[in-house]
Design goal:
single chain, 116 residues, 7 strands, 3 helices, 4-stranded antiparallel sheet, alpha+beta, 31% helix, 3-stranded antiparallel sheet
């Protein structure tokens, strides 16, 4: 997730950071307005609008329903998720995370580089 977000443009990262902050404050109250189901059990997508439609995949917990875990960076291009099968890929990452919960880390903002 971190390497995906570091490749985003500054404007895209700022929009993503804002939605992550809103998610941290409001949690599940945002479903379905900002966070929507993907059709794959336990996997949601965060909707970040813009010229580039960011759709990072996430799940509640695991372990508690108060927090979310970002599993995979994705975009929506012409109504299709990129990478293809993003919800299924995220579901596999979630299964691995449930088995190995210590692999979960705290959210880090992508590094920002400023121009001089």
């Amino acid at each position: 997730m971190r390497s995906w977000s570091e490749r985003l443009q500054v404007k895209e990262r700022a929009k993503l950071d804002f939605k992550v902050d809103v998610l941290a404050i409001h949690g599940t109250q945002l479903i379905p307005n900002v966070v929507s189901p993907t059709g794959v059990s336990s996997i949601f997508k965060l909707k970040v609008q813009g010229q580039v439609k960011l759709r990072p995949m996430l799940c509640e917990g695991p372990g508690d329903a108060i927090s979310f875990t970002f599993l995979l960076g994705a975009k929506e291009v012409q109504f299709e998720l990129v990478p293809s099968g993003a919800p299924e890929i995220a579901a596999n990452y979630r299964k691995d995370l449930v088995v190995h919960p210590t692999r979960r880390c705290l959210h880090e903002r992508a590094n920002r580089q400023t121009k001089s």
